[in-house]
From TrEMBL:
<protein>
    <submittedName>
        <fullName>Uncharacterized protein</fullName>
    </submittedName>
</protein>
Length: 168
């Protein structure tokens, strides 16, 4: 993950805890070549509440993509990631902005997820412009993500799927 964002100097303890938990959740999905799976699923699990739910938006796009419909537990979310990873040479995330709502324990991130499909030429990574809404629970010492909604760029997702299907 490429991250140059920092909480504002005047940020409260709550703001900083929410901000850091959100970035840690995204960072847990960073490519790690030292792991057989290339992603630290145990770290993802540790950052999620027991009742964690993940879903995708936008509603119309999701209505056309059965694998993205409904909500998924942490195991369902990880299963989705495990299906994607074998088709990718690499992935990298650039977090560009964060909106922190202390009252609702919510963080909204805007980021670019650069995905390099296996077997596709170097430099042909697809940028998926993502908004990710993360709701937290717990105390400030141990915040966890309880609800996650990922809004993906439908055209970028279509291009990634097209490149993956071409390689199969």
């Amino acid at each position: 993950m490429t991250n140059t964002l920092e909480p504002p100097a005047a940020a409260s303890q709550t703001y900083t805890a929410l901000f850091n938990t959100a970035l840690n959740f995204i960072d847990a999905q960073t490519q790690d070549p030292n792991l057989p799976s290339r992603m630290d699923f145990d770290r993802i699990r540790a950052l999620c509440s027991p009742g964690f739910e993940h879903s995708w938006g936008h509603n119309y796009a999701v209505s056309l993509a059965p694998p993205l419909q409904g909500s998924h537990s942490v195991d369902g979310f990880i299963s989705h990631l495990q299906k994607m990873l074998p088709n990718l040479d690499s992935w990298n995330t650039d977090v560009m902005d964060a909106i922190v709502d202390e009252a609702r324990l919510r963080v909204i991130l805007r980021m670019s997820l650069w995905m390099q499909v296996k077997g596709v030429g170097e430099g042909d990574a697809v940028e998926n412009d993502i908004l990710w809404v993360l709701d937290m629970d717990g105390d400030l010492e141990k915040l966890r993500v309880k609800k996650s909604m990922e809004f993906i760029d439908g055209l970028a997702a279509g291009r990634i799927k097209e490149l993956m299907m071409r390689k199969m």
